[in-house]
Amino acid sequence: MIQHFSFKPLFENTQLPGWSITFFYQREYYSAEYLKDGAIKWTGTTPPNEEDVKKMIHELMLYHVYE
Asked: I need a labelling partner for 38 at 20 to 30 A (CA). Which of 16, 27, 51, 64 fits?
């Protein structure tokens, strides 16, 4: 489960899509960029079970950003 999920816009103009995201997963800290097409670019290490983590991130972004 993802914990302490946070996001902030990549650009000063918040109308431009793109977010910096950070979270903890299995007691490890991860950071990434969530791009406008839904792609996730890891800025540090890649978490285990990457596909499962991506699904959780997409759900969180849909809930927090697009609703």
From this structure: 27
State which amino acid sits at residue 9: P
Beta bridge partners of 9: 19
pLDDT band at 53 (very low <50, low <70, confident <90, very high): very high
> What is the pTM (predicted TM-score) of this model?
0.85
Interatomic CA distance for residues 7 and 34, integer angstroms: 9
- How many Å is the maximal CA-CA distance in the chain? 33
pLDDT band at 15 (very low <50, low <70, confident <90, very high): low
Tell me the C-alpha distance between 40 and 28, whole Å.
Answer: 18
Domain boundaries, the chain: 2-64
d(CA 40, CA 14): 18
